[in-house]
């Protein structure tokens, strides 16, 4: 049965871990910037390693780094001692995680980095531990009680490691100028991939555009609107999109004289548009009370058209 005491205990853990992360953020120093510069400068990959719960966190850190522009993979310290050290080259850098800094299984990995002059960055709270003493750079975690009620199971320490790993990945993204477009290259599938689709990936091109001049008669406009099937016609003047005629415009101007009018008299001027390089999600946000957007180049010339159905089919909407 869930009781108020149960909720209180859960809140205590979350608050303790949140406070620990705040403490860590306040203690970041020049070692952190040195570590970022070192990682950024290597030609190879970041090899992340750790034992037990630190290893589980290490796998996540390696995955985050790899998906944000820093090639990385996880090497289990036990497997490293039985042949996987051969996966680590002189161009790589090792990021070793151990709260105590005295994890026995890391010994061979530490020795290997020293023998072959492979940069070693330690993440540990052991300020005078074997790991921090041998590391080129030590990123020290604040020594805080574990949030575990028994103060035994790694909770606060692993949260700190995970947070620091995310901070490293984010700092490297900023240092490299990593973009959403690059992020999309590593996440082509699933919800993230759909979220990062661009308008140019979904839009209908120039051959399908329903376009006319301002002096086009409304009879021809209606024929064009029916042929293209987008429920609208763009009005182009001086090679720029100057207006749009939609089903709504037709209803608003419905009269016995409608067919005698010209497009320029019926159109809505300065319609909403989007760019080919805009994210599809951004275009979706613009589609408030409308179903179609013309896509224009920097000079305002129409180069494509995007319908809400295109976004629905792609899973963006």
Mean pLDDT: 92
CATH class of the largest domain: Alpha Beta
Instruction: Tell me the fraction of residues in β-strands, as a range.
Output: 15-25%
Count of domain modules: 2
CATH architecture heading of the largest domain: 3-Layer(aba) Sandwich
Overall shape: it is elongated
Largest sheet: 5 strands, parallel
N-to-C terminal Cα separation, in Å?
Answer: 40 Å
List the strand order in the largest sheet: 2-1-3-4-5
Poorly predicted segments: none
Radius of gyration: 29 Å
User: How many beta-strand runs?
Assistant: 12
Range of helix content? 40-55%
CATH topology of the largest domain: Rossmann fold
The count of helical stretches stands at: 15
Overall structural class, as computed from helix and strand content, comes to alpha/beta
Taken in chain order, the helices and strands follow as: HHEHEHEHEHEHHHHEHEEHHEEHEEH
Look at the structure and name the CATH superfamily of the largest domain.
Answer: Glucose-6-phosphate isomerase like protein, domain 1
């Amino acid at each position: 049965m869930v009781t108020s005491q149960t909720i209180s205990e859960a809140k205590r853990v979350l608050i303790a871990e949140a406070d620990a992360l705040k403490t860590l953020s306040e203690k970041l120093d020049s070692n952190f910037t040195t570590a970022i510069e070192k990682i950024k400068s290597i030609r190879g990959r970041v090899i992340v390693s750790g034992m037990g719960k630190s290893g589980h966190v290490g796998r996540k850190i390696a995955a985050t780094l790899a998906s944000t522009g820093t090639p990385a993979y996880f090497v289990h310290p036990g497997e490293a001692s039985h042949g996987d050290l051969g996966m680590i080259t002189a161009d790589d850098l090792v990021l070793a995680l151990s709260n105590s800094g005295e994890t026995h299984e890391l010994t061979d990995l530490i020795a290997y980095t020293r023998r072959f002059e492979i940069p070693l960055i330690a993440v540990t709270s052991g300020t005078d531990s074997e790991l921090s003493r041998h590391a080129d750079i030590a990123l020290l975690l604040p020594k805080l009680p574990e949030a575990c009620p028994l103060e035994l199971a790694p909770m606060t320490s692993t949260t700190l490691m995970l947070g620091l790993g995310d901070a490293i990945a984010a700092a490297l993204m900023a240092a490299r100028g990593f973009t959403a477009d690059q992020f999309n290259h590593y996440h082509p599938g699933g919800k993230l991939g759909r979220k990062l689709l661009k308008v140019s990936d979904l839009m209908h091109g120039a051959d399908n555009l329903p376009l006319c001049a301002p002096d086009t008669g409304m009879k021809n406009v209606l024929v064009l609107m029916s042929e293209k099937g987008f429920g609208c016609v763009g009005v182009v003047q001086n090679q720029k999109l100057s207006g749009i005629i939609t089903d709504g415009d037709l209803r608003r101007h419905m009269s016995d004289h409608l067919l005698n009018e010209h497009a320029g008299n019926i159109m809505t001027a300065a319609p909403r548009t989007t760019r080919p390089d805009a994210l599809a999600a951004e275009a979706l946000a613009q589609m408030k009370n409308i179903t179609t957007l013309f896509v224009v180049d920097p000079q305002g010339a129409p180069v494509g058209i995007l319908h809400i159905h295109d976004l629905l089919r792609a899973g963006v909407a």
